[in-house]
Design brief:
Layout lengths: L1 H22 L5 H8 L1 E6 L2 E2 L3 E3 L5 E2 L1 H13 L2 E6 L5 H6 L5 E7 L2 H4 L2 E3 L4 E2 L2 E6 L17 E4 L3 H11 L9 E4 L2 H9 L5 E5 H11 L2 E7 L5 E7 L3 H17 L1 H10 L2
Amino acid sequence: MKRLTLLLSIAVILAGALSACGSGKPANELEAVQQAGKIVVGTSADYPPFEFVDENGEIVGFDIDLAKEIGRRMELEVEIVDMPFDSLIAAVQEGKIDISIAAFNYTEERDKSVDFTDPYYYAEDGFLVAEDFAGEITKPEDAANYRVGVQTGATADSWVTENLVEAGLMAEENVFRYERMDQAALDVKNGRIDILITDYIPTLALAEEVGGLKVIYHAEVSTGPVNIITPEGSTELTEALNEVIAEMLEDGFIDQLSTKWIGT
Protein backbone atom coordinates (compact mmCIF):
# COMPACT_ATOMS: atom_id res chain seq x y z
CA MET A 1 0.00 0.00 0.00
CA LYS A 2 2.83 2.36 0.88
CA ARG A 3 4.55 1.44 -2.39
CA LEU A 4 1.34 2.23 -4.34
CA THR A 5 0.97 5.57 -2.56
CA LEU A 6 4.57 6.44 -3.37
CA LEU A 7 4.12 5.54 -7.05
CA LEU A 8 0.97 7.62 -7.27
CA SER A 9 2.78 10.59 -5.70
CA ILE A 10 5.61 10.29 -8.20
CA ALA A 11 3.10 10.06 -11.04
CA VAL A 12 1.39 13.25 -9.88
CA ILE A 13 4.73 15.07 -9.67
CA LEU A 14 5.77 13.87 -13.14
CA ALA A 15 2.40 14.84 -14.61
CA GLY A 16 2.77 18.32 -13.17
CA ALA A 17 6.26 18.67 -14.56
CA LEU A 18 5.16 17.50 -18.00
CA SER A 19 2.20 19.86 -17.92
CA ALA A 20 4.50 22.77 -17.08
CA CYS A 21 6.79 21.85 -19.95
CA GLY A 22 3.86 21.47 -22.29
CA SER A 23 2.50 24.89 -21.38
CA GLY A 24 5.50 26.40 -23.15
CA LYS A 25 5.96 29.42 -20.89
CA PRO A 26 7.60 32.10 -23.06
CA ALA A 27 11.27 32.73 -22.38
CA ASN A 28 11.09 36.40 -23.30
CA GLU A 29 8.78 39.17 -24.55
CA LEU A 30 9.22 38.25 -28.21
CA GLU A 31 8.18 34.64 -27.56
CA ALA A 32 5.24 35.93 -25.51
CA VAL A 33 3.74 37.93 -28.38
CA GLN A 34 4.49 35.12 -30.85
CA GLN A 35 2.67 32.58 -28.66
CA ALA A 36 -0.25 34.97 -28.18
CA GLY A 37 -0.31 35.69 -31.90
CA LYS A 38 -0.94 39.32 -30.99
CA ILE A 39 0.95 42.44 -29.96
CA VAL A 40 -0.81 45.03 -27.78
CA VAL A 41 0.25 48.55 -28.72
CA GLY A 42 -0.41 51.49 -26.42
CA THR A 43 -0.88 54.99 -27.82
CA SER A 44 -2.39 58.36 -26.92
CA ALA A 45 -4.85 59.30 -29.64
CA ASP A 46 -4.73 63.06 -29.26
CA TYR A 47 -1.66 63.80 -31.36
CA PRO A 48 -2.46 64.31 -35.04
CA PRO A 49 -1.21 63.27 -37.51
CA PHE A 50 0.61 60.54 -35.56
CA GLU A 51 -2.38 59.19 -33.60
CA PHE A 52 -5.87 60.65 -33.36
CA VAL A 53 -9.56 59.75 -33.58
CA ASP A 54 -11.13 60.43 -36.98
CA GLU A 55 -14.69 61.45 -37.80
CA ASN A 56 -15.76 57.81 -37.73
CA GLY A 57 -14.46 57.29 -34.21
CA GLU A 58 -11.50 55.22 -35.44
CA ILE A 59 -7.96 55.66 -34.12
CA VAL A 60 -5.81 56.47 -37.14
CA GLY A 61 -2.53 58.15 -38.03
CA PHE A 62 1.12 57.69 -38.93
CA ASP A 63 1.90 55.60 -35.84
CA ILE A 64 -1.23 53.49 -36.22
CA ASP A 65 -0.35 52.56 -39.80
CA LEU A 66 3.18 51.85 -38.58
CA ALA A 67 1.87 49.53 -35.84
CA LYS A 68 -0.36 47.64 -38.28
CA GLU A 69 2.50 47.17 -40.74
CA ILE A 70 4.76 45.91 -37.95
CA GLY A 71 2.07 43.38 -37.08
CA ARG A 72 1.75 42.30 -40.70
CA ARG A 73 5.48 41.80 -41.11
CA MET A 74 5.81 39.96 -37.80
CA GLU A 75 2.66 37.92 -38.56
CA LEU A 76 0.90 39.21 -35.45
CA GLU A 77 -2.56 40.61 -34.81
CA VAL A 78 -2.35 44.21 -33.59
CA GLU A 79 -4.50 45.54 -30.75
CA ILE A 80 -4.43 49.32 -30.27
CA VAL A 81 -5.06 50.59 -26.73
CA ASP A 82 -5.67 54.32 -26.19
CA MET A 83 -4.64 55.90 -22.88
CA PRO A 84 -3.21 59.18 -21.52
CA PHE A 85 0.34 59.82 -22.74
CA ASP A 86 1.80 60.05 -19.24
CA SER A 87 0.53 56.55 -18.36
CA LEU A 88 2.09 54.74 -21.33
CA ILE A 89 5.52 54.04 -19.84
CA ALA A 90 3.97 52.63 -16.66
CA ALA A 91 1.65 50.48 -18.78
CA VAL A 92 4.66 49.00 -20.60
CA GLN A 93 6.45 48.39 -17.29
CA GLU A 94 3.41 46.69 -15.77
CA GLY A 95 2.76 44.51 -18.82
CA LYS A 96 -0.63 46.07 -19.58
CA ILE A 97 0.63 46.69 -23.12
CA ASP A 98 3.49 45.04 -25.00
CA ILE A 99 4.94 48.19 -26.57
CA SER A 100 4.03 51.84 -27.04
CA ILE A 101 4.02 53.73 -30.32
CA ALA A 102 3.16 57.33 -29.54
CA ALA A 103 5.79 59.62 -31.10
CA PHE A 104 8.13 58.98 -28.17
CA ASN A 105 11.48 60.76 -28.07
CA TYR A 106 14.44 59.18 -26.33
CA THR A 107 15.52 60.68 -23.00
CA GLU A 108 18.03 59.41 -20.45
CA GLU A 109 15.35 59.58 -17.75
CA ARG A 110 12.95 57.36 -19.72
CA ASP A 111 15.80 54.99 -20.57
CA LYS A 112 16.08 54.15 -16.86
CA SER A 113 12.72 52.38 -16.91
CA VAL A 114 12.08 51.20 -20.49
CA ASP A 115 13.99 50.34 -23.66
CA PHE A 116 13.88 52.09 -27.03
CA THR A 117 14.01 50.79 -30.57
CA ASP A 118 16.04 52.48 -33.25
CA PRO A 119 14.41 55.70 -34.53
CA TYR A 120 11.79 55.54 -37.24
CA TYR A 121 11.35 59.31 -37.59
CA TYR A 122 13.03 62.60 -36.60
CA ALA A 123 11.07 65.52 -35.16
CA GLU A 124 11.34 69.22 -34.35
CA ASP A 125 9.41 71.27 -31.80
CA GLY A 126 6.75 73.77 -32.83
CA PHE A 127 5.50 76.80 -30.92
CA LEU A 128 1.76 77.19 -31.50
CA VAL A 129 0.07 80.55 -30.82
CA ALA A 130 -3.18 82.35 -31.63
CA GLU A 131 -3.35 84.12 -34.99
CA ASP A 132 -3.49 87.50 -33.23
CA PHE A 133 -0.44 86.75 -31.05
CA ALA A 134 1.46 90.04 -30.73
CA GLY A 135 4.58 88.71 -29.03
CA GLU A 136 7.86 87.59 -30.53
CA ILE A 137 9.70 84.27 -30.41
CA THR A 138 13.15 84.37 -32.01
CA LYS A 139 14.71 81.70 -29.78
CA PRO A 140 13.21 78.96 -27.55
CA GLU A 141 13.98 80.78 -24.31
CA ASP A 142 11.69 83.65 -25.34
CA ALA A 143 8.79 81.39 -24.32
CA ALA A 144 9.70 82.20 -20.69
CA ASN A 145 7.90 85.53 -21.10
CA TYR A 146 4.52 83.85 -21.69
CA ARG A 147 2.07 81.29 -20.34
CA VAL A 148 3.21 77.98 -21.82
CA GLY A 149 1.30 74.75 -22.33
CA VAL A 150 2.97 71.33 -22.64
CA GLN A 151 1.85 67.72 -22.61
CA THR A 152 2.36 66.08 -19.22
CA GLY A 153 5.42 63.84 -19.29
CA ALA A 154 6.49 64.85 -22.80
CA THR A 155 10.01 66.01 -23.66
CA ALA A 156 8.72 69.58 -23.98
CA ASP A 157 7.51 69.35 -20.38
CA SER A 158 11.01 68.35 -19.25
CA TRP A 159 12.67 71.04 -21.39
CA VAL A 160 10.46 73.85 -20.06
CA THR A 161 10.91 72.66 -16.47
CA GLU A 162 14.68 72.27 -16.66
CA ASN A 163 15.62 75.13 -18.99
CA LEU A 164 13.08 77.79 -18.12
CA VAL A 165 11.62 77.18 -14.65
CA GLU A 166 14.63 75.71 -12.86
CA ALA A 167 16.90 78.19 -14.64
CA GLY A 168 14.88 80.99 -13.05
CA LEU A 169 13.63 82.38 -16.35
CA MET A 170 9.93 81.78 -15.71
CA ALA A 171 7.59 81.00 -12.82
CA GLU A 172 6.21 77.48 -12.38
CA GLU A 173 2.66 78.86 -12.29
CA ASN A 174 3.06 79.94 -15.91
CA VAL A 175 3.51 76.33 -17.02
CA PHE A 176 0.25 74.55 -17.86
CA ARG A 177 0.34 70.76 -18.29
CA TYR A 178 -2.24 68.87 -20.31
CA GLU A 179 -3.14 65.24 -20.86
CA ARG A 180 -4.65 66.05 -24.25
CA MET A 181 -3.12 68.27 -26.91
CA ASP A 182 -6.46 69.14 -28.50
CA GLN A 183 -7.58 70.73 -25.22
CA ALA A 184 -4.29 72.61 -24.98
CA ALA A 185 -4.75 73.96 -28.52
CA LEU A 186 -8.25 75.15 -27.63
CA ASP A 187 -6.84 76.95 -24.60
CA VAL A 188 -4.35 78.73 -26.87
CA LYS A 189 -7.21 79.80 -29.13
CA ASN A 190 -9.33 80.95 -26.18
CA GLY A 191 -6.48 82.91 -24.58
CA ARG A 192 -6.01 80.78 -21.46
CA ILE A 193 -2.39 80.15 -22.44
CA ASP A 194 -0.15 81.98 -24.90
CA ILE A 195 2.00 79.23 -26.41
CA LEU A 196 1.76 75.47 -26.81
CA ILE A 197 5.08 73.69 -27.29
CA THR A 198 4.97 70.23 -28.83
CA ASP A 199 6.26 68.40 -31.92
CA TYR A 200 6.26 70.61 -35.03
CA ILE A 201 4.12 68.40 -37.28
CA PRO A 202 1.34 68.01 -34.67
CA THR A 203 1.30 71.80 -34.16
CA LEU A 204 0.58 72.22 -37.87
CA ALA A 205 -2.18 69.63 -37.67
CA LEU A 206 -3.69 71.22 -34.56
CA ALA A 207 -3.60 74.68 -36.15
CA GLU A 208 -5.59 73.35 -39.11
CA GLU A 209 -7.98 71.30 -36.98
CA VAL A 210 -8.80 73.95 -34.35
CA GLY A 211 -8.49 77.08 -36.51
CA GLY A 212 -7.43 80.55 -35.43
CA LEU A 213 -3.90 79.34 -34.66
CA LYS A 214 -0.45 79.55 -36.25
CA VAL A 215 3.03 78.12 -35.72
CA ILE A 216 5.32 81.01 -34.93
CA TYR A 217 8.60 79.13 -34.43
CA HIS A 218 10.04 75.65 -34.95
CA ALA A 219 13.39 74.04 -34.25
CA GLU A 220 14.88 70.98 -32.59
CA VAL A 221 14.55 72.01 -28.94
CA SER A 222 13.39 69.05 -26.87
CA THR A 223 12.68 66.54 -29.60
CA GLY A 224 14.75 64.58 -32.12
CA PRO A 225 14.65 60.84 -32.87
CA VAL A 226 11.22 59.20 -32.50
CA ASN A 227 11.26 55.62 -31.21
CA ILE A 228 9.05 52.74 -30.08
CA ILE A 229 8.99 52.01 -26.33
CA THR A 230 9.60 48.41 -25.23
CA PRO A 231 9.89 46.76 -21.79
CA GLU A 232 13.23 47.15 -20.06
CA GLY A 233 15.53 44.25 -20.87
CA SER A 234 13.35 43.00 -23.75
CA THR A 235 16.37 42.48 -26.01
CA GLU A 236 14.80 39.93 -28.35
CA LEU A 237 11.60 41.94 -28.92
CA THR A 238 13.50 45.20 -29.36
CA GLU A 239 15.91 43.63 -31.86
CA ALA A 240 13.01 42.09 -33.82
CA LEU A 241 11.34 45.51 -34.02
CA ASN A 242 14.63 47.10 -35.08
CA GLU A 243 14.85 44.64 -37.96
CA VAL A 244 11.34 45.56 -39.11
CA ILE A 245 12.06 49.30 -38.77
CA ALA A 246 15.24 48.90 -40.85
CA GLU A 247 13.25 47.06 -43.53
CA MET A 248 10.56 49.76 -43.62
CA LEU A 249 13.15 52.53 -43.90
CA GLU A 250 14.96 50.66 -46.66
CA ASP A 251 11.93 49.66 -48.74
CA GLY A 252 10.31 53.09 -48.55
CA PHE A 253 7.34 52.29 -46.32
CA ILE A 254 8.24 55.04 -43.81
CA ASP A 255 8.53 57.51 -46.68
CA GLN A 256 5.05 56.46 -47.82
CA LEU A 257 3.69 57.17 -44.33
CA SER A 258 5.37 60.59 -44.32
CA THR A 259 3.77 61.43 -47.66
CA LYS A 260 0.35 60.17 -46.56
CA TRP A 261 0.19 61.76 -43.13
CA ILE A 262 2.67 64.63 -43.16
CA GLY A 263 2.92 65.57 -46.80
CA THR A 264 6.71 65.37 -46.98
